[in-house]
Amino acid sequence: MRPLPDRSAAATVARTFHTLIVQPTTLCNLDCAYCYLPDRTRQRLMSVPVAAACAASVAVQDSDHPVDVVWHGGEPTATPLEHFRALLAPFEPLRAAGRVRHGIQTNATLLNERWCELLSAFQFQVGVSVDGPPWANRHRVDRAGHDTHARTIRGVRQLRQAGIPFTAICVVTPDTIDRVDDLVAFFTMLGCTSVGFNIEEQEGSQRAVVDEQAAYRFWQRLVQLRTAGNALSVRDLDRLVGYLHATRTDPRPLAAPFDPIPTVGFNGQTVLLSPELLGITAADYQDFIAGNVLTASLPQMIADADRLRYVREFTTALHACASNCGFFDFCRGAQAGNRYFEHGTFTVAETHYCRTTRQALVRAAAAELTEGR
Ligand code: SF4
């Protein structure tokens, strides 16, 4: 008989990281209605010593697993291109050794030939943020309140002309959630290799949240389209399929602990567990700062993470998830940021986010796939 996965081992924060999020600039050229980034109107650039300290932290961590270094903003391409290139330089020995893979999440509006050359040269995995056709994308406006859809599509065209594959991330809002077929048609036409649907979350911005029944219908329709042969790769469905496959072949992946996901701000200040916590002021949690990469390595910060109240609270909630929640083996405990933004604490296990994004997906897939059996 196959051993059951050790859920208590899974409900801890790992001592090494597979994902590192870095902020080359705080500036974003857009002003999306649901944006939570507090400093997005100011151009504050990461310095080369901060980037070098990030690279040094990857080099010293006790793991051969490649690290996905995700350049996130602000809007990362609002960084002057030559400065961005200088930030990449310290990572080059690691990239050459296969220990670092670069990724970027961009609104694509500033992409041009020179950016595409850089993305190709450094083998970036590119993610484009776009919420669907113009009617669905209307929350993504510039500072003057103007629509940005055409500019994003122009950037996507640049990627395609340069032969750069890209994924997409779509924020699904209460007014788009019932138009699944239209969204699927759009992302199929866009030519992305995969799309991730993020049900709108309650982060720094106070906006209407998606109803749980609507979320269920959304995932249900996506599953129906997939089982009917639709070829669009959907990140969330692929994860579920991957999980089901893993449980059939090897239980070990289920024992993986939570990635600490260090996020390093432009000035080296670092938060753990959730990039959304960067730049948020919270006296009770000392602004979530685990340290500064200029004075402490990331492995050191992670080793000391238990002294941080929010990390201790999150670990407690992870244990509650592992003990009590039937979705844990797939979910892994969901996001720290959602717990905080919804409840002002990290101790709450079940959130609106996990009900609309993890639980509704699994319920809808289970109902669809077992119907009539
Ligand atoms: S679905 Fe919610 S309660 Fe369940 S494991 Fe995930 S985060 Fe925890």
Structure description:
The chain has 373 residues and is of the alpha/beta class. It has a domain at 17-255: TIM Barrel (Alpha-Beta Barrel), CATH 3.20.20.70. Helix content is 39%, strand content 11%. It has 14 helices and nine strands. A nine-stranded mixed β-sheet has the order 6-5-4-3-2-1-7-8-9. Strand 7 (263-264) and strand 8 (269-271) form a beta hairpin. Helix 2 runs parallel beside helix 3 (81-88) and helix 8 (212-227) runs parallel beside helix 14. The longest helix has 19 residues, at 352-370. The chain is globular. The structure holds iron/sulfur cluster. Iron/sulfur cluster binds next to helix 12 and helix 14.
Give the mean pLDDT: 92
Q: List all distinct small molecules, including ions and cofactors, that are bound in this structure.
A: iron/sulfur cluster
The biggest beta sheet, please? 9 strands, mixed
- In CATH, the topology of the domain at 17-255 is named TIM Barrel
CATH homolog superfamily of the domain at 17-255: Aldolase class I
The string of secondary-structure elements, in order, is: HEHEHHEHEHEHEHHEEEHHHHH
Number of strands: 9
Contiguous runs where pLDDT drops below 50 for at least 5 residues = none
Distance between the termini: 26 Å
